[in-house]
Specification:
Oligomer: single chain
Shape: globular
Structural class: alpha/beta
Low-confidence stretches: 653-658
Strand order of the largest sheet: 12-11-8-6-7-14-15-23
Strand content: 15-25%
CATH architecture of the domain at 524-651: 2-Layer Sandwich
CATH topology of the domain at 524-651: GMP Synthetase, Chain A, domain 3
Radius of gyration: 24 Å
Bound molecules: 5'-O-[(S)-ethoxy(hydroxy)phosphoryl]adenosine
Length: 658
């Protein structure tokens, strides 16, 4: 949507960011990752990855590091076999760490539960036995729609243990979003909960599952964790987790799977309305998730308390709550609820009470806390923190500095990590013991990763220029395809420049070669770190009987990064109270019902026309100018250049939304 050139202008000031924060000598001296990682990877990239893979426990050793002969379909660690759950749980128990706490769970109402590695092994074994008892075999798909509770982690690991790829669907998505994902993956089982605690009240999950399952013939059973205990409807396919899983044996022998056995599918928004099922496999994924977690967070499993605030419904929860951290024998906090319950200092309270040392969160959260004021974090002792991470969207230098000063006490390396659902694991990030960081920059490719910033012709650009971010070498955790649609995989990522993976992001290299991410260059919005496609929201709007046509843009938003702004043309006969607030509210709720509350437009404008070229293509760039209150750019290619005046006039009159 926005061109790289337009973004250039706003970025020129960042090029002059000259503050630099090298790691303290003490941090550097004890860091897991030293500068020699870069040289090792440079000298022998595949040998370097083979060495990282050997930190896992393989049942059968691999015979070849990478087979790229069928590019872009990679095979990593060919011939190797391993079990992911064994690597994340059993091997730590066997090594004598059964009593170490893996998960320090804290529910929103304040309930707490410590899950040791021995507990986790017992529960994952029980759940794996339950899956097998329900007829789930290696290769069968399981949908998981759960709150942030330990059973969500157990469910994922149990699937991994029996080789059944999971498809975790964020519990904030609607019944329809869940249904379409179940259908696309042809899932046999749903694992869910009765509800979750959000902002001091019970939010029911089961009704959405009931609605989705009623329309999903592939689903044979539904396993329901009792979390909130409120009354829920019960059907023939439903089984309580505590009854059914609880009665299983705590013994389960894991079977090793091929390195390329599918581990999970995770749906993410692309530029069309249909979400893509991103497919990840076993050996390469676990290798890179584990390696990056250890080096970038500098994890010391005996002393650190790690907390990643993401939800397991997103890839960050997969790679940096479940697989990477547990393979590294982490002790981590999992928190069920929202940051403002019971008060707006809940996170700082959690950090203080649990002695959190490593924190991983998103810029949206940081900007929200900035707005809430310094007094809240300052009223807690946050001195246990020793490293702070950020992910999901570009972090502006102000938020970066605030994070460093107010949360980190000017004493913690800030790690801005760039990656995607598709990349599976971090790709661009500082190494905390090596890199002198600049506020707002993700700095450079991690050892073993190849990136470039290229122009339209695919030519790599030098320092001081902006263009498109591409990945130049296959990497272990790369997606292996889009579920059921390999052509779309090739078209989406490998067609613009067949020799590169195109990430869809703009980026700029500053004079020192540090990288600055500029956001998406396609029709994907990034709202609070969540990817939502403009087309998806447009389709949802058009599915409302009163809407004839819709165009959606992401407008920059101080807190959420981008906010969704929709321009809507009504069908004939629906124009009377078009700007009435309750009508606008109805449309917003309709989008929430179709996709989920995260996709609710911030603002909906009823317009008489949309700006289109003579060939009928909507010029979203112009709508974005309107949505961001800029003077409208070049409109000479419009079929009817007066349209923009009508739209801008309508904007002045429309009621704005919350
Ligand atoms: C954006 C999240 C700037 C980017 C792990 C990417 C970022 C998309 C950063 C992937 C960052 C992620 N700086 N932008 N540190 N991290 N992004 O699939 O646009 O939910 O393409 O994966 O988020 O989002 P996804």
């Amino acid at each position: 949507m926005t061109s790289v050139n337009e973004k250039d202008a706003t970025l020129s000031n960042l090029l002059h960011e000259d503050r630099k924060f090298p790691p303290s000598p003490e941090f550097a001296a004890q860091a897991n990752g030293k500068a020699d990682l870069y040289t090792q990877a440079q000298d022998d990239r595949l040998g370097f990855w083979a060495q990282q893979a050997k930190n896992l426990d393989w049942e059968t050793d691999f015979t070849e590091v990478l087979d790229w002969s069928n590019a872009p379909f990679a095979q990593w660690f060919v011939g190797g076999t391993l079990n992911v759950a064994y690597n994340c749980v059993d091997r730590h128990v066997e090594a004598g760490y059964g009593d170490q706490v893996a998960i320090r769970f804290e529910g929103e109402p304040g309930d707490q539960r410590n899950v040791t590695y021995q507990d986790l092994m017992n529960e994952v074994s029980q759940a794996a036995n339950a899956l097998e008892a329900l007829g789930i075999k290696a290769g069968d798909r399981v949908a998981i729609y759960m709150p942030m509770i330990p059973e969500a982690v157990v469910a994922m690991l149990a699937c991994a243990r029996v080789g059944a790829p999971h498809s975790v669907v964020f519990a904030g998505f609607s019944a329809e979003a869940l249904r379409s994902r179940i259908e696309d993956a042809d899932a046999k089982l749903v694992i869910t909960a009765d509800g979750q605690n959000r902002r001091g009240s019970v939010m029911s999950l089961k009704p959405a599952v009931d609605e989705a399952v009623a329309a999903s013939p592939s689903i044979e059973n539904v396993l329901v964790v009792k979390r909130t205990g409120h009354e829920v409807a019960w059907g023939d396919k439903d089984m309580w987790w505590h009854d059914f899983v609880g009665q299983q044996s705590t013994e389960h022998t894991p079977v090793a799977f091929d390195s390329e056995h599918p581990l999970f599918i995770l749906y993410t928004s692309g530029t069309t309305g249909k979400p893509k099922g991103i497919l990840h496999t076993t050996g390469g994924y676990l290798t890179q998730a584990t390696y990056t977690h250890k080096m970038v967070f500098d994890l010391k499993p005996d002393t650190d308390v790690y907390w990643c605030t993401a939800d397991i419904g997103w890839v960050t929860g997969h790679s940096y709550i479940v697989y990477g951290p547990l393979a590294n024998r982490v002790t981590q906090v999992i928190y069920e609820g929202t940051p403002d319950s019971p008060a707006k200092d809940r996170w700082w309270d959690i950090i203080e009470r649990h002695g959190v040392t490593l924190l991983y969160t998103a810029p949206t959260a940081i900007r929200t806390f900035m707005k809430w004021g310094d007094e809240l974090p300052q009223s807690h002792d946050l001195s246990s923190l020793r490293l702070l991470g950020s992910v999901g969207e570009p972090i502006n230098p102000e938020a970066w500095m605030w994070y460093r000063d107010v949360i980190g006490g000017n004493n913690c390396p800030i790690i801005d990590t760039w990656w995607q659902t598709e990349t599976g694991a971090m790709m661009i990030s500082p190494l905390p013991g090596v890199t002198a960081t600049k506020p707002g920059s993700a700095m450079g490719a991690l050892p073993g990763i190849g990136i470039a910033v290229v122009n339209d012709a695919g030519e790599p650009l030098g320092n001081g220029s902006g263009g498109f971010l591409v990945l130049t070498e296959p990497w272990p955790a790369m997606l292996r395809g889009i579920w059921g649609d390999n052509q779309r995989f090739v078209d989406t990522y490998w067609s613009r420049w067949p020799q590169y993976y195109f990430a869809g992001d703009g980026a700029k290299l500053d004079e020192d070669g540090a990288i600055w991410l500029l956001g998406r260059v396609d029709d994907v919005m990034n709202v609070s770190g969540h990817r939502i496609s403009t087309t998806e929201v447009e389709s949802a709007l058009v599915s409302h009987p009163s809407v004839a046509e819709a165009a959606v843009v992401g407008a920059s938003d101080e807190t959420t990064g981008q906010g969704i702004v929709a321009f809507v043309i009504l069908r004939g006969g629906h124009s009377e109270d078009a700007s009435a607030e309750d009508y606008i509210q109805e449309l917003r709720n309709h989008v929430a019902k179709e996709i989920g509350p995260i996709a609710k437009p911030r603002q909906i404008l009823i317009v008489p026309e949309l700006p289109k070229t003579r060939s009928g293509k909507i010029l979203r760039r112009l709508l974005q100018d309107v949505a961001e209150n800029r003077s409208v750019g070049d409109s000479t290619t419009l079929a009817d250049p007066t349209v923009m005046n009508l739209i801008s006039a309508g904007l002045a009159a429309a009621p704005s939304d919350d």
